[in-house]
Amino acid sequence: MLTGKELARAYYDGLKEAYLRESGQELWDHFSSVVQGASQEDIDSLLKLYPDVPESLIELLRLVDGTYFRVYSKEQVILLALGSDMEEYPYYLLSVQQMIETKDEFGEWADYFITREYGDGIPVDEGVCDDLEKLHWLHFSDCVNNGGTSQLFIDFSPSAKGKKGQVIRYLHDPDEMAIIADSFDEYLQMLMDNEYDFINEDNATTDVIFPVSL
Length: 214
Known about the structure:
This protein is α+β, with helices and mostly antiparallel strands. The protein is built from nine helices and eight strands.
């Protein structure tokens, strides 16, 4: 069994191979020449808020500190790096700072998912807690459709029927809250087993790295 660090590195290597397989060599080479890993200071800040962040996510952030409008030096990166159980929805990896900044946002604007205010109208997995005061989620990924269509979270406050560290997918239109993996490690392994099916020739060859004025 791979350690968290080994899994993250295997995932990152596999992501590269997926881009190369789909004719994305030029894009990946540009991306890898620009990106940097998260600083230890930022990682320490994340761990202060989320002491149980899995080693695999920490290591992934050490390799690349976000791919969602993340500015590195004088270039901005917007690169698809993650997926879910739904092949048609690729995702971005948030930076450490984005994870920290969005810490409480979901509970503030989508509290009705947690409180089940709409009863059976919106499917919410029974492993998701129903107490807003206990809600402790790490928002680590936004969907390609503006982030509002779908977001991914590591859940550190599950219900009695859930598992601490499970990965939750929020989907909009149709609204749904589903547990897609029991852990972040399991989530990464799922994407690897599915052969990074969220990457295709269209999105692997689109130039999404461009200069910005700082």
